Amino acid sequence: MKKTLRLLFVLALAASPAFSSFAAEAKRVLVVTTTTGFRHSSIPYAEETLKKLGEESKVYTVVDFARQPDVQVPRKPNKPKDLAPNADEKAKAKYDADMKKYEAEMAKWTPDFEKDVKAKQAEFDAAMSKSLEKVSPANLAANKIDMVIFANTTGDLPLPDKDGFIKWIEDGHAFAAMHSGSDTFHHFPAYIEMLGGEFETHHAQVPADLIAADKQHPANAGIGESWNIKQEEMYHIKSQDRSKVHMLWFMRHDPNETSLQVFFPVSWCKMAGKGRVFYTSLGHREDLWSDDPNMKGRVNPPEISKQYQAHILGGIKWALGLAEGSATPNPEVK
């Protein structure tokens, strides 16, 4: 009888919300930071921060990274642009210095050197493909991955099965991307459709006065109606159908032309089939990712960094189905 009562007590505990929350395993996340285009210096900080947020929140665990191969491929130098007819002495001096540097670099490009470069490129390509095997649908299933994050990826990544990856998301898995995650797969329409927008261009880094489109969403993170960032590289977005995305943060003007009143998207979420997708164009600067107060060259104070971390953690939790929030398109927001 005592054994039966003890068993019923244990079963009751297991069925209770508190026990279930305690016993539930953290969601399993794969972070991708490979690039075939521009490579952001903030990527190491992104990796560190995403890992830290998972450890601190205990709601997800970064179980692996798909990282850039440690293979250096020399790049052929570009010839400096011709001098303008009206160039001043300062411009001429800079042109002369740039030309000397260019000629010195070009002197290295002998037939044997180019042969070595091609070999290095082949080695890099093979290593990149091996790294991205982790994103194949078979490996995602075998490793029980719940979410994939593209943290400042760029270019046309050699995924082993691009269409299969999109289907994996649409079948009910989570996806998140930060900053140049929208500067990825420009030639793969299914990815742009899944993400809900595409990088077009950017200009000089500027202060950004963001407006909340949904104060209740986890990606608002309690920041409130507005969010003033001291400095960031703000992306112009194209290929976006606002009737298909739930806007989270936006601006009411062009960040570099403040007199130009336009709707300027910054962060959104959406459904892709049964899968949840979260994107933020923020994340260029190291001092957004890291809240280290002693970071050299810091412009954004640690308080803004912590807001950014809360913003992406809220978006990740929502995409994983661990926090409630709307994904209903809200094109009426202006």
Automatic annotation (TrEMBL):
Residues 79-90 have a biased composition (Basic and acidic residues). Gene3D superfamilies: 3.40.50.880. Keywords: Signal. Residues 1-23 form the signal peptide. InterPro entries: Class_I_gatase-like, ThuA-like. The keyword Hydrolase does not apply. Residues 71-90 are annotated as: Disordered. Pfam families: ThuA (PF06283). The keyword DNA-binding does not apply. Residues 28-293 form the ThuA-like domain. This is ThuA-like domain-containing protein.
